[in-house]
Write a sequence for this structure.
């Protein structure tokens, strides 16, 4: 029988695999999902929003969303990602349909978009539009599970939340952004490793490592990292008037929920949720 690693999740998180070629049916679904999100975005006419996707299957560690970016007025998603070919992180603008197509095929594909109230949205949009600033806020070393307050490593979601620190904290570097975020009570998501082998794998795999994680956390087999859930939690607390919409694909049906209570792992619809059928 084939052998499988019990700690396969860290390999998925840290590897740079060639993305599978999407079938025509997959792209049809992706385009329809992107159209639903775009319709909501156009109806709101917002200059920027926070968009998250289930880019990796993080359900083994109790999380649904792995990757977030800024949905801009151009209809593209500005985000930090790790360029495997050059082995460097960089800021990248991706079309919404392509961003939607980057969901994991394991589990239920899901997306979340958060809209700021008008005044803070304008501040975020101006900061995100500054390409030089966005590049300057990239840490020299990418680490998929970088500690939330690491001065030298960073993951994609940490770059995003530090851009918020720049937008509202008045600084123009990572140290100033982190200082503002600390003062505002930002904290990362706690990722609990279920087995010490996962921690050992993280120490050895490229684009991961254990640098800057406190010894007490490592001894408890946990990481504190920025994941979309932590960013959304911060936005909800800092701007109570912000609004959230979640889409989850179940077969050819899309469950749409409005509000801050997330869908469960099965995306079971509740009273008030919309249920939309995709075209065949």
């Amino acid at each position: 029988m084939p052998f499988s690693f019990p700690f396969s999740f860290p390999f998925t998180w840290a590897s740079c695999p060639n993305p599978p070629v999407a079938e025509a049916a997959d792209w049809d679904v992706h385009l329809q999902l992107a159209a639903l999100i775009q319709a909501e975005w156009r109806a709101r006419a917002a200059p920027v929003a926070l968009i998250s996707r289930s880019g990796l299957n993080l359900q083994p560690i109790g999380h649904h969303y792995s990757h977030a970016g800024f949905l801009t007025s151009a209809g593209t998603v500005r985000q930090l990602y790790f360029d495997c070919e050059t082995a460097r992180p960089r800021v990248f603008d991706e079309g919404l349909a392509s961003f939607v197509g980057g969901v994991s095929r394991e589990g239920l594909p899901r997306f979340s978009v958060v809209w700021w109230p008008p005044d803070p949205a304008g501040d975020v949009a101006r900061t995100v539009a500054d390409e030089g600033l966005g590049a300057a806020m990239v840490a020299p070393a990418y680490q998929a599970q970088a500690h939330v307050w690491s001065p030298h490593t960073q993951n994609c979601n940490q770059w995003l939340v530090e851009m918020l620190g720049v937008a509202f904290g008045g600084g123009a570097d990572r140290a100033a952004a982190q200082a503002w975020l600390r003062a505002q009570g930002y904290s990362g998501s706690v990722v609990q490793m279920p087995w010490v082998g996962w921690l050992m794998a993280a120490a050895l795999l490229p684009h991961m490592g254990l640098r800057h994680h406190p010894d007490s956390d490592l001894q408890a087999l946990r990481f504190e990292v920025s994941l979309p859930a932590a960013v959304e939690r911060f936005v909800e607390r800092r701007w109570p008037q912000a609004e959230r919409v979640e889409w989850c694909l179940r077969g050819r049906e899309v469950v749409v929920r409005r509000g801050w209570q997330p869908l469960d792992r099965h995306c079971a619809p509740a009273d008030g949720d919309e249920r939309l059928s995709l075209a065949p």
About this structure: The mean pLDDT is 86. The first strand starts at residue 48 and ends at 53. The CA atoms of residues 91 and 131 lie 8 Å apart. Residues 8-277 form one domain.
